Amino acid sequence: MSPESVWDAARRARIGLAEAILCEGKTPGQIAAICAVATKDDRHPLLLTRLESTVFAALPPEVRCEADYDALSRTALLGRMPVPGEAARIAVVTAGTSDVGVAREAVRTLAAYGETATEWADIGVAGLWRLLERLEELKRFAVVIVVAGMDGALFSVIGGLLPGAIIAVPTSTGYGMSAKGETALHAALASCAPGILVTNIDNGYGAACAALRILRAARQADL
Amino acid sequence: MSPESVWDAARRARIGLAEAILCEGKTPGQIAAICAVATKDDRHPLLLTRLESTVFAALPPEVRCEADYDALSRTALLGRMPVPGEAARIAVVTAGTSDVGVAREAVRTLAAYGETATEWADIGVAGLWRLLERLEELKRFAVVIVVAGMDGALFSVIGGLLPGAIIAVPTSTGYGMSAKGETALHAALASCAPGILVTNIDNGYGAACAALRILRAARQADL
Amino acid sequence: MSPESVWDAARRARIGLAEAILCEGKTPGQIAAICAVATKDDRHPLLLTRLESTVFAALPPEVRCEADYDALSRTALLGRMPVPGEAARIAVVTAGTSDVGVAREAVRTLAAYGETATEWADIGVAGLWRLLERLEELKRFAVVIVVAGMDGALFSVIGGLLPGAIIAVPTSTGYGMSAKGETALHAALASCAPGILVTNIDNGYGAACAALRILRAARQADL
Amino acid sequence: MSPESVWDAARRARIGLAEAILCEGKTPGQIAAICAVATKDDRHPLLLTRLESTVFAALPPEVRCEADYDALSRTALLGRMPVPGEAARIAVVTAGTSDVGVAREAVRTLAAYGETATEWADIGVAGLWRLLERLEELKRFAVVIVVAGMDGALFSVIGGLLPGAIIAVPTSTGYGMSAKGETALHAALASCAPGILVTNIDNGYGAACAALRILRAARQADL
Amino acid sequence: MSPESVWDAARRARIGLAEAILCEGKTPGQIAAICAVATKDDRHPLLLTRLESTVFAALPPEVRCEADYDALSRTALLGRMPVPGEAARIAVVTAGTSDVGVAREAVRTLAAYGETATEWADIGVAGLWRLLERLEELKRFAVVIVVAGMDGALFSVIGGLLPGAIIAVPTSTGYGMSAKGETALHAALASCAPGILVTNIDNGYGAACAALRILRAARQADL
Amino acid sequence: MSPESVWDAARRARIGLAEAILCEGKTPGQIAAICAVATKDDRHPLLLTRLESTVFAALPPEVRCEADYDALSRTALLGRMPVPGEAARIAVVTAGTSDVGVAREAVRTLAAYGETATEWADIGVAGLWRLLERLEELKRFAVVIVVAGMDGALFSVIGGLLPGAIIAVPTSTGYGMSAKGETALHAALASCAPGILVTNIDNGYGAACAALRILRAARQADL
Amino acid sequence: MSPESVWDAARRARIGLAEAILCEGKTPGQIAAICAVATKDDRHPLLLTRLESTVFAALPPEVRCEADYDALSRTALLGRMPVPGEAARIAVVTAGTSDVGVAREAVRTLAAYGETATEWADIGVAGLWRLLERLEELKRFAVVIVVAGMDGALFSVIGGLLPGAIIAVPTSTGYGMSAKGETALHAALASCAPGILVTNIDNGYGAACAALRILRAARQADL
Amino acid sequence: MSPESVWDAARRARIGLAEAILCEGKTPGQIAAICAVATKDDRHPLLLTRLESTVFAALPPEVRCEADYDALSRTALLGRMPVPGEAARIAVVTAGTSDVGVAREAVRTLAAYGETATEWADIGVAGLWRLLERLEELKRFAVVIVVAGMDGALFSVIGGLLPGAIIAVPTSTGYGMSAKGETALHAALASCAPGILVTNIDNGYGAACAALRILRAARQADL
């Protein structure tokens, strides 16, 4: 690996989550160098996030050919994927079609850990029936990741209806006072529904990591 | 009147809305001087807004005795009130109990113009049934003034369910990232529901004025 | 339609406003998929907003050929347009030439519902006579949509002169402390003129939807 | 209850969390009226948050005498408390002594649901050994609520060391660019450690509710 | 004088403006110590600004008795005042009654330099006739200081109508998105009228100093 | 002219400043249409500001050939220029080389009114001698326009040394917490030197207009 | 000590700086409990910062009697002070009298470590001669702590003139766009003078700690 | 040199730091003109910062051929470099690979003054062992420059562990609430560890200048 990086190989053992590569802000050369080290001894899949297709195209062929790249979520996965779990314990829902890229980042992160997630898109509160008709089904999930931009109203509506763990992922969808996701973020934080948890704007990856922690917490709690 | 003020007596004739006195930032002396001039020739009620009870108590007795003061909305009304309209064409709803003061400011402003408003409090989305069970009734109003702080999710939920004119009044209710009403304000502006109109934070008075303009617009449109 | 979208076909029946497609943040593929479903059973026009000409050019021919595209307002209309109403009940005015794109978005949205709007451009307060000489004519409209950026002074001046319903649309026109429309937005919210209602920055679409709600409110109010 | 409030009695059945009373922004009269209704049929404890001692003192005696009031956390509990659980599954840690009030709000909220929490104070990163010497013990908890203001560095350090679910509660501790908790909040959201979840500033109550959701998620996930 | 202060006695000779004492943030002891030195050798009046009445009351009698204190503008003047100029070359106008305190600070500062200013209050654009009927008179002034809060629309309207030098003083009048004067400030900076100059929020003193510089500039320009 | 514009031909007679065209945010077609009308009857030069070279290149040849275009200041001048005044009464100084474009906008605006300005660049306070050695010369100007970005320290230093009218033009020079000119703007507004006047960020045009107003004020004041 | 605190007794040995007590946000009881533990085994002085006089008065007598309390800097010192160093290697200068409290906090912190500092007040750039006449003397100090609010221009002027280490402490002095110290902070960060280092707003304590680190760095560098 | 620039040749003699060219915001022509003058009489290396590779490529060949250009740090060095010092007294560490460009700017600035710096990359707190295993070595440096974006947690952790002078350089690394470096900046300013000093966002150049001042301070202090 380049002397510009120190791979935290012990992270998976320590906290159950492997290091991933945030590609934004890194040169193709830096990304390739990290990939080389990270995939050497590790049988687990390596996740690359916020990887623009132009940067992906500039990676060396040995990385590109190995990678399962998805343009919508701007993610790539390298290495052997785990066998997917049978039952989905996590649902990922979005308020609108524009939020699907972020949701997909969460779904693909979960897949890297063998978690199958159920994904429902475009159930925002402007057409409330879309949520209400899925309500009973949604109640069965241990964790619901809610992805929404603009006003972020979906976070509170879901928070008032579902008993499970709720992770709000505000997105930069919208314009003007959507403020690149800050309004949805603040709405999630100031929610009138109790116990909603929040991640950074557009952070589908972080939401998935949190969901994995929560599933582990369950086991740890010896319920 | 004090040379510090010029009463816009023609406003009612010009735009159908009389000047009101925003008391915040004025001394009791200034308020009293304006009242003296404003009530001289005018048979209509005079409205004082954002009038703290301590400032009200410091007003001269001739103003205080005439006034119908309401501490919750921090408003006072001077002069003869019009006969209230029979049917309520405007509903004023709040997300929580803490928003009632602002809602009351709107209701009392409407009353000064003879408009009777129906008021429902505490129907926020954390308990969505409270809204849904009033839905059919709410659909009958020409204008619905929605008063909410914190996440402002109620604006979008109502905007997706009701066909009438909707006026969102964000309130400074809440703490932390409720940001003194800015989050509710931004959520109203960035709403995923179409055609929601917004006023300044805590501006129940302005919402009532806008509702009066809308009712007048109807007449003007010759529908 | 793509599984990434759930078309809210019932919205028109529910609130009198059909779902529109906000194209910003969606891929051409996503837009085309939504168009396919939305136009299947619906005889009404479908509105696409914030559709950059480069994205429009990337849409499949079956969408492009059907569409009435306008570059200035970045809108497209698909489907049969309603017969335009005879008398204009809504005026759309702008402070400057740079605001015309946003105003046009409002005008075209209204047209999709058969509302003819009168459009006056460039009557900002730096040359106040431009407004004053149109004043008597403006007073005849039920609703006036005011589109302005920079200082947003036009909102308050009109608010002090006209009795009708006033919808302020702040625009991102200007530089420096125009702050991408935030100054005009804040000026509209903090206006010294009573009863001004405000939409998101550059939201001509939302202003038109609100105007339609107001006209309907009139009817509902049974005046 | 006052017509200004609608008690959401069904909330506990619906999402497993009872409605609590946010006292800030409510008059003593409003608080008392809500207490009267909320405690009528309910055998569960009622939680009052952000209740200043001066407001508590202004409540009617029948509320005050029933209440277990704690000034540091500004909380009161009414009604019969559940039997505390034996093993602590949740830890609440603070960066400094000034954060203890918020931590206590979380601990008391958990107690209202029978959850015993272990509380460690003042283990901020300026003296890193204070955290490191508790590390093995902390690893045993299913959920760790981390309460920190100022730079919020503790969130990331714990996030890199512990495998369980981590809930970051930023506090308004500090001055200048601590910015009333915004810096800690932003640091939690932008954390370099994966899977940290965040609540509103000073929201110990919300963190406890989220922890309860997580414990329930475990059960639901049928692990 | 206290060793905590160094009086800039040369300032009047250097730039034609004497040092004044900004009292906010200083203890009565510090203020008194500065007064003692500043008034020793100087025959000119000394100006104290932002001097709360409670702080004024805490000053030693030898300062208080000498001082001409005005509570509305929170200013005090010590020492012999110059003979007032005959003709007013500067007008100070306010948008509302709440702005009079700031205007008065400007008027009193000008008086300390022998400049008589004409003061008109409460001519905001909500009642535009109040401005228009004074327009011809206002055109005769070399400098017009405009004092306005809230939306700051008066700055642009005057800027489009008057040919003289215009100094905009935004005030902290208003609530919500008036944002303690920031909206008026931003509106003045982003004005659509050309050549408006702006001071800090509530800075009547600075506006007066600038007006004095402008009058001097005239002389210097040898017109 | 296009119906999208209303030329304010009376502005020069009214306030002594002709309308200029802010090109940013306008299409080449809109700019050309305004030019056509504005130059028809007017013998005075027409100023175009914030005109990017790519937009200038897209203007029709009849506009381009007439225009005196300057890329650094992004300005164009059309029409016959007035005879330049002999003596410079206005100085334009910049803190750094990067600020020269904005300064040039001011100089060219002044030239359109026959005012010759003296321009000194790169005299920022990091090398204070550069200012101090020009100090005596600077004192002779009636108006000094100071153009500076980053920390804006030059405004206060000049304000403490020069007696003339001082116009601060903050620029968007710098990075990070230079905040696109906001830091320089705020420093100018909060200056410890009395009587500094401020324009919008990068607004060399506005500073020149203000300087022209000041020179006129002198004449008006009949000094 | 209270179980709410863990005293970091090893800090002095580890980084050469003892833990201090930030009193803001702590109850008198919490402060007293920490004092009890911190002073038990330690012969060094204990520093309490941001200690309001009302809170100091509420401390138990055994703390109050031991303490050397200074109201201007809101600091208290407990325990035996070290012998002051003979030669001052650090200068603390302020722009104005209002900044002296913060400067005094730095001076008293340095005294707790035996460093004598030279203090000059009120040498802001509005009267530049006050700085220039002290320039040669200031050049002799290894470290200069500059304390300034409002525009923070003093930071850059000193940074362009002095070769030593410069620590900028922005203060919350000023009003309006002084923005509680943010403008001075941003000016220090965006300074045109190279190598200026910055602390939090009003953080005289932190500046002193940094100065102590710098003096130690010198020793460590083995120059 | 172009009349648009005044080279501060005396700066090196005055404060020990030569003027450098901030290329951002300057045209290639302006940069080349400054280079021509700056390198004429000076034997010392000239530093160009924030020089994009496209701008570098547009410089005239006589500048380009002389220059040692580094794309990662966007810096160029012209002229004869000093002999590098033997022992590294300054360490430059980064939290992540994305921060290396800013660190390199610092290292290259130091090299221009003959200071050799030791550089360690990617030791952020998400993998705390990376820092802890270098701790003893880091303690030997007089100055540690810490370069970090996102949450900026590394600043506080290092501040609590190392006794030397610590310079925090926040970077614009990260997305969403990393806020282009503002979160890391605020975390550094609000750090719970005492005596951390801060520079502008991405200001590796400024950090190096400050480190040079600190080393000089040591000499000056006559330790």
How would you describe the overall organization of this protein?
- The structure is a homooctamer of 223-residue chains.
- Chain A folds into 2 domains: 68 residues; 133 residues, 3-Layer(aba) Sandwich (Rossmann fold), CATH 3.40.50.
- By secondary structure, chain A is α/β, with parallel strands linked by helices.
- The mean pLDDT of chain A is 95.
- Chain A is globular, with a radius of gyration of 18 Å.
- In chain A, helix 5 crosses helix 10.
- The first copy, chain A, is built from 10 helices and 9 strands.
- The termini of chain A are far apart.
- In chain A, the strands form 2 sheets. Chain A has a 5-stranded parallel β-sheet with strand order 6-5-7-8-9, sandwiched between helices.
- At the C-E interface, helix 8 and helix 9 of C face helix 8 and helix 9 of E.
Order of neighbouring strands in the sheet with most strands of chain A: 6-5-7-8-9
What is the count of structural domains of chain A? 2
Q: What fraction, in percent, of the residue positions of chain A are helical?
A: 25-40%
Class inferred from helices and paired strands of chain A = alpha/beta
The global form of chain A is: globular
Radius of gyration of chain A: 18 Å
CATH class of the largest domain in chain A: Alpha Beta
Q: What is the correct CATH architecture of the largest domain in chain A?
A: 3-Layer(aba) Sandwich
Largest interface: B-C, 51 and 49 residues
Which parts of chain A are unreliable, with pLDDT below 50 for 5 consecutive residues or more?
A: none
Q: What is the quaternary state of this protein?
A: homooctamer
